[in-house]
Specification:
Two copies of one chain form a homodimer.
Chain A lengths: L1 H36 L2 H5 L9 H18 L11 H4 L13 H21 L14 H6 L5 H19 L8
Helix pairs in contact in A: 1-5, 1-7, 3-5, 3-7
């Protein structure tokens, strides 16, 4: 009976993990599909007058996902040099940006490697502390775990996807 | 020992519920804050040229949250009449819309009642089947539970929040 309850615990965790990761993968698949549809001319345009350009938002999404590697214990980042232009500075900062073809390649590389790590992390590990919260704070706030990062960053991605779709015709 | 494992299960579930609901409440608080900042002139405007207006998106968000009441077993909907204009039809359909002041009131009413239901649902209940999935499908796909609806609709809200912020100055 004890084993049965313990395995139910594992199964419950696995279900949670699937819920959060399915949402992450689903929204990133929508970004990927949109990127495949948009040409360079679409992507250099502003998403709305005076607002962030497509190219800035793509760089921003790459940099944010890349920044999660050390936070989640997934090892070294691929493109830490993007932070200055795409996280620390706003669009039109005058800082040089990589070519759109390069940014699309970065997006693919970061997301592929991130998905690999995600798929390999055991369910239990997702409920452990991430590296942006101290052990003391985590003891008081156990919801500040690795999976919570995924939930929050999925919302961040969907927020900017809602803006990126304005670069395409007939999408709302 | 058995009790200890069982209570750990409950605690894990409670933590996960907190993660998903915090994200829902957080994004809805951001929508509320934005609504309080925007006047009627801002809200009748398009979020970008040729795109959905603020008023349409607000009606859409009210209608979507309202539609969750029966799906989650929270009882009767408050404003089912909004679906025709704000879910089944696109913006500029020619269908009459409620006044902006009314829509803001609807938004407050729906969200307040929804939050009440959320706060009263026991953690275990969140992992039960929602009413848009059959028992047979749920047996095969246990992640299609009530909490998953919250995770997915939070992403829906953040997607449209990313668009609604374009009605305000200096927000990205």
């Amino acid at each position: 009976m004890q084993t049965q309850i313990a395995s139910e615990t594992i199964s419950t965790k696995a279900v949670f993990v699937k819920m959060a990761i399915s949402a992450w993968e689903g929204y990133n698949a929508r970004v990927k599909k949109l990127l495949d549809e948009l040409n360079d001319e679409h992507l250099v345009a502003e998403t709305a007058p005076g607002r962030n350009s497509g190219v800035y938002l793509i760089g921003h999404l790459v940099a944010i996902t890349d920044s999660l590697f050390p936070i989640l214990g997934f090892g070294k980042r691929l493109y830490p040099e993007l932070d200055k232009t795409f996280i620390e500075s706003p669009d039109k900062s005058g800082l040089e940006m990589p070519a759109i073809s390069e940014l699309k390649e970065y997006w693919n590389n970061v997301n592929a490697k991130f998905s690999d790590h995600i798929s390999q992390l055991p369910a239990d590990e997702w409920f452990t502390r991430h590296n942006n919260v101290s052990e003391a704070d985590f003891a008081k706030e156990p919801h500040r775990n690795k999976l919570n990062i995924i939930i929050n960053r999925t919302n961040h991605t969907s927020y900017h996807l809602g803006q990126l779709v304005y670069l395409a015709k007939n999408k709302n």
